């Protein structure tokens, strides 16, 4: 079994600028300043010590309605890289949704590494 890697969630939201699934690894404050404000929430770069940590933005991509969300459920080390285990939560058939394009995302912080980042997606249906 692959060893677990500690991480913490920095933030998440429903409207990112990414219309397709994306993974953005942020290893310095300049990249943070160019990426994070585009997500519509304000988290200062000082909240991450880039000498010790890095951030990973995982975006689901565009969805046709409201009711979608993204979560990171774990990070494991595999060889020289990391697997970020992410779930896309989708609205169940009993959920009321709005006809608005949503683009869910989540941002996590973990120990700084030059390792490759792979995202392993699962879909979870959330019943309302």
Keywords:
globular, 128 residues, mainly beta
Architecture overview:
The protein has 128 residues and is mainly β. It has one domain. 5% of the residues lie in helices and 45% in strands. The protein has one helix at residues 29-35, and strands at residues 7-13, 22-26, 53-59, 69-78, 81-91, 105-111, 117-126. The model has no long low-confidence stretch (mean pLDDT 92).
In short:
The chain has one domain. Helix content is 5%, strand content 45%.
Structural class of the helices, strands and pairings? mainly beta
> What is the CA-atom radius of gyration, in angstroms?
15 Å
Beta-strand residue fraction? 35-45%
Strands of the widest sheet, in order across it, are 1-6-3-2
Q: How many distinct helices? A: 1
Largest sheet: 4 strands, antiparallel
Head-to-tail CA distance between termini: 34 Å
Mean pLDDT: 92
Helix content: under 10%
**Number of structural domains:** 1
Element-level helix/strand string: EEHEEEEE
Unreliable parts: none
Helices and strands in order:
Blueprint: E1 7-13, E2 22-26, H1 29-35, E3 53-59, E4 69-78, E5 81-91, E6 105-111, E7 117-126
Parallel strand pairs: 5-7
Antiparallel strand pairs: 1-6, 2-3, 3-6, 4-5
